[in-house]
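Notes from hallway chat w/ T.B., transcribed later so I don't forget. T.B. wanted the structure written out for a chain they're using in a teaching module, and asked if we could keep both sequence and structure tokens in one place. Agreed to drop them here.
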Amino acid sequence: MNFLSRIEEILLLAIWKLADRAYGISIRKQVELDTGTDWMSGAVYAPLNRLKKNGYVETIQALGSTDLGGRPRIYYRLTSLGEKKLANIQEVNRSIWTDVPDLKKTKS
């Protein structure tokens, strides 16, 4: 089985959660919300490019220009392969965490 890196998994989940609102900044903000960690703006783009290269996400360029005259937004969405990969990851996570007690409640 071909496993994704943890950041790739987190990015796929962020894109799934954001649906049609998934573009670079919104994805980074979702990842920050989900992980409780600040992420540098550029930190998500290399793994997003790998996900695209591997066929898990596709990009769609927004029509028209931005309000500030910059480049149009690039939106990301899961492909059917990406959805299957995310479902597989969910299954693996459930399996590997089976029979593990709540670690926050266990004492050292």
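Follow-up for T.B.: Helices lie at 6-18, 24-35, 45-53, 80-97. Might be a good example for the class.
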